[in-house]
Design a protein that fits this description.
single chain, alpha+beta, Arc Repressor Mutant, subunit A, four-stranded antiparallel β-sheet, rod-shaped
Length: 237
């Protein structure tokens, strides 16, 4: 009694190949009549168990019956050169299917191996390129200030509180004069006084000026120095 069902196979050729292996014989040594009978017995048994048998298995059964009939008929000598041996025809089909099945198995193994690797879609370098003379945003100003403070900390420069009072308005006027004179000033140059009040007021003045479009923040390339230039509102004045 068969211990397997139709769903165990990928198709009728898969079933035939299984029957060959089950018989423990070489494909080239198959007995066409015996193999066809085994196949038909299997199909009949599936039908007796009221299992649905796909139409492709029924079509193969019909082809095998036709091959079996041809193998049992006496050969006409005058047609020997043109007539194809039905046994040889089936052997060739089984060999081709076996090759296909083996290659498919190799592909599945490679696919499973590939699943063990994780990758990401390649990123466009354009996303990381800062164009020359590109106007920055408020984030660039904040990052510049943060780097400035970290550098001063690494250099062990201690900021001190002074008794002199600074206003954002006055410091803005001073920065405008510097920009008007130099056209373009490096961000760190504006922090020439390291007192705490002066640093804070200078940064607040830059924020306010950027908000009013009185300055541009420019970085000429990734990781390069950041410069301050006059903004649109200043150019129009």
């Amino acid at each position: 009694m068969h211990k397997f069902v139709i769903n165990d196979f990928e198709g009728p050729m898969d079933l035939l190949l299984h029957l060959v292996h089950q018989s423990d014989i070489d494909i080239y040594d198959i007995n066409l009549v015996d193999l066809v009978n085994q196949y038909l017995d299997f199909i009949n048994e599936m039908e007796k168990l009221e299992l649905n048998v796909a139409s492709e298995y029924i079509v193969m059964a019909a082809e095998l019956i036709e091959l079996k009939s041809r193998s049992l008929l006496p050969h006409q000598e005058e047609n020997n050169e043109e007539e194809i041996d039905p046994r040889e025809e089936l052997i060739n089909r089984l060999i081709e299917y076996k090759k296909y099945k083996e290659i498919t198995g190799d592909f599945k193994a490679l696919e499973e191996e590939r699943r063990q690797y994780f990758s990401k879609e390649p990123s466009s370098l354009k996303d990381y390129i800062v164009k020359k003379e590109e106007k920055g945003d408020i984030t660039l100003l904040l990052n510049a200030f943060n780097e400035f403070m970290l550098k001063k900390k690494d250099e062990n420069i201690v900021t001190k509180t002074t008794v002199k009072e600074y206003s954002v308005t006055e410091r803005s006027k001073e920065i405008k004069k510097i920009i008007k004179s130099k056209k373009k000033v490096e961000f760190r140059e504006l922090f020439d006084n390291l007192s705490r009040d002066y640093i804070i007021v200078t940064f607040l003045a830059l924020l306010e000026m950027f908000k009013l479009d009185e300055i541009n923040i420019i970085q000429e390339g990734n990781f390069n120095n950041i410069y301050i230039t006059g903004g649109p509102s200043e150019s129009s004045n």
